Amino acid sequence: MTIGLLICDHVAEALRPVAGDYAEMFAALFARHGSEVSLKFYDLQQGDYPRALDECDGYLSTGSRYSVYDREPWILRFRDLVRALYQEKQKFVGICFGHQMIAHALGGSCLKSGSGWGLGVHEVAVCAKKSWMEPEQGAYNLIVSHQDQIVALPADAERLGGNAHCPYAMVAVGDHFLGIQAHPEFNTAYVEALMQTRVERIGPSVVQQARRSLHKQIDEAVVVRWMVNFFSAS
User: Fold this and answer.
1) Could you state, in order of their start, the residue ranges of all structural domains in the chain?
2) pTM recorded for the entire structure
């Protein structure tokens, strides 16, 4: 199964020795938990887009330091690509920035959270069960790092999971779009290093609280299996 990884940003060069760039993070993630997936890389900021929407079996996006409502030309083109994937019923999984783009592109809304930064390991309660969510699990823990989040869903979207900080932490639109606010590709070493570069921006108390959460179990294996099942489902 070939999945197109839509790369929406790059890890800062100083942090790449920790876990690589986003392409390496996702490649390592699927090597561990979804070896049937082969990734094809598209660097959207460099204008590298699929020539045809069906040249991959599905698409997956990375996160980004940008906001989906920014007016950068590549972001507008990404928005249009998401709309085209939706219209053509191509499978798409949006991670963080891509999760937010699902709402932004299809008529929902995404803004900076009134609750401040989401950071560290957060638990998400599953509120709607789908057939591809096997192994079945009523909640999952994943690393988050975001200010923006979905505040209103587009028409026909369904909330699959959330928590008090981020009510729309996992959403679906139809049977071919899935959005996940968290970062299954992040490991604790990388998020620790990333937080260290953002202490002044985020605030030391928020960073300290997030660091205390990093000892929790992370359910990346479960969520990656859900993603693989989602891409495979007819």
Assistant:
1) 2-232
2) 0.96
pLDDT digits (tens, 9 = 90+) for 138-156: 999 999 999 999 999 999 9
Question: Right CATH number for 2-232 from 3.40.50.880, 3.40.50.2300, 3.40.630.10, 3.30.565.10?
Answer: 3.40.50.880
- For residue 204, whether the previous peptide bond is cis, meaning omega lies within 30 degrees of 0, is no
Distance between CA atoms of residues 83 and 196, nearest Å:
36
Burial of 232 (0-12, 13-18, 19+ CB in 10 A): middle
DSSP three-state, residue 225: helix
Distance CA 34, CA 232 (A): 12
Q: Are 86 and 78 in contact (CB under 8 A)?
A: no
| 3-class SS of residue 226 | helix
